[in-house]
């Protein structure tokens, strides 16, 4: 007789002894009309069935560039471990209390099952368990793979139809795996309470140890918890902890009864305190050390079809897939940004400082920092969105970028063949000479001759690409943009990855070069990084590789393209370097190596920026009031304990950038800029100042002429 036949025969015999009124196997079949009977053994299909076993939900771990964990994501907090990574005492405890004959019987523990069946028949319902560990594993798999409430209800339904199906699946599992493998799978899928799924998570949550380190009383506690994890959840209060302790003692008593431990060992373990630690479950960006970068990565994954065809599928992959995500963030650079921001802007200040650091030539995001911690925004010390990034990565609408956009007009002029000492005469005020003076990229006239652009103080006179940039002269850049073309400035910016923070189309008006578009630090820093990489633009990159739950690794490479003639980028770097020595940052100073950048302050001091780069690292800092920068200007404010009559690009963002970069690059060998091609960009051409002579000398004499006013933008005045 086959093993299955023997089991059926034994089942029939015990069934008859229990009062079953038919010859052969009789099992109640629950249907719509109530109880019916299946009168023959052949009527019950006890053939093994193949159980579909989707991997149980596992924790996804995010790591920094050095491999250190920075965040976790999960729907069920679980870490799957191997059989050898589980303490033997844990295996003994769970088998002793849940299925002490586990290693002796097959898929069905006939004696235990028949005891339960007899009791259930007398009761007229399923009132007693009797499931083997294998059957319990099957039940957990069905429950975890359920995609709807109906499927979840069916997985735990108290019916004989469900029980028979469970038995068939259990037979298939026993045919497929060894006993040790089944026990390993069960311990990794079981829920222990307190939000811990699987024995590794439970050991950490309950006792702050690994599953391999569990002691006898700890193992007995966890073994006792699986019977009714909600009723014995120690995180819910004293009553639940008392029930858990009582259940632990039952397990210890059973282990002693079976001879797995001595009576003395059981008594000693029963005398110990429960020892529940309630170790906090790590997870989510809110609890990450790098919350803004974490948010950025999370949104990258949720928008990538490689992780699922729909947003819902991608979220499931993130929360259940057990991924290991290696990222680009550099702890040293992040610490440098955090320290600099903390020095200049406090969490309690109304305005918020935000900074992003990006590696030229790769687009790798090295740091994302802000003066407020990320949270639900319950108080002024928190902010509920990613203030460092754009809306596509959890950010908001950003802040107007101000004079940092003048760099794009400078690049357009150099691309068109202007030399660094070419210039034009800038007035105290600028008005478009006609409606057709500026055309957007759709060919539409956008010039407004009724609007005057001014500098609050300054002298009319001749300005060159160098000196106009160093002093950040608004009227000069309006004249320059008129000459090179509005669309050319816009196209240049777009080629460097410039997009509005809110995802809308760039505003293409004549004041584009003055930074009227709202931006985020990541986007601006990345545009400047492309100049530092000699015109090689790389999309912002946050992830370097992802390893899935099966150990398959996908590597991510920089996505780059050459968007600028390297010589044009070199010339722009040469001009922008002077911002530190002769321009708006001269009062702040450089960082002891080749560096270039541009200050920026918006109209009426609504926001302030600094963006700059070296060949090794680029960064952008914004300061603005998230309550509404146009309503809450940076005038008469206190930041970091210091009073500011008006916050300018060089007064707060510039020092933050300088201190960040000096610290972040301290251990990085300096890379010099490639010298400007003097033959191509040095001196001046047809745009030389009338009368000849050195343009810088001419401008110095102009500034010294009585009765003239300094033309430079007051927001960007040197040292301010």
TrEMBL record:
Pfam families: Transgly (PF00912), Transpeptidase (PF00905). InterPro entries: Beta-lactam/transpept-like, Glyco_trans_51, Glycosyltr_51/Transpeptidase, Lysozyme-like_dom_sf, PBP_transglycosylase, PCN-bd_Tpept. GO terms for molecular function: penicillin binding; peptidoglycan glycosyltransferase activity; serine-type D-Ala-D-Ala carboxypeptidase activity. Keywords: Carboxypeptidase, Cell shape, Cell wall biogenesis/degradation, Glycosyltransferase, Hydrolase, Multifunctional enzyme, Peptidoglycan synthesis, Protease, Transferase. Residues 67-255 form the Glycosyl transferase family domain. The keyword Phosphoprotein does not apply. It catalyses: [GlcNAc-(1->4)-Mur2Ac(oyl-L-Ala-gamma-D-Glu-L-Lys-D-Ala-D-Ala)](n)-di-trans,octa-cis-undecaprenyl diphosphate + beta-D-GlcNAc-(1->4)-Mur2Ac(oyl-L-Ala-gamma-D-Glu-L-Lys-D-Ala-D-Ala)-di-trans,octa-cis-undecaprenyl diphosphate = [GlcNAc-(1->4)-Mur2Ac(oyl-L-Ala-gamma-D-Glu-L-Lys-D-Ala-D-Ala)](n+1)-di-trans,octa-cis-undecaprenyl diphosphate + di-trans,octa-cis-undecaprenyl diphosphate + H(+); Preferential cleavage: (Ac)2-L-Lys-D-Ala-|-D-Ala. Also transpeptidation of peptidyl-alanyl moieties that are N-acyl substituents of D-alanine. Residues 357-622 form the Penicillin-binding protein transpeptidase domain. Transmembrane segments: none annotated. Residues 684-720 are annotated as: Disordered. Residues 697-720 have a biased composition (Basic and acidic residues). GO terms for cellular component: outer membrane-bounded periplasmic space. It comes from the Bacteria. The keyword Nucleotide-binding does not apply. GO terms for biological process: cell wall organization; peptidoglycan biosynthetic process; proteolysis; regulation of cell shape. In the C-terminal section; belongs to the transpeptidase family. In the N-terminal section; belongs to the glycosyltransferase 51 family. This is Penicillin-binding protein.
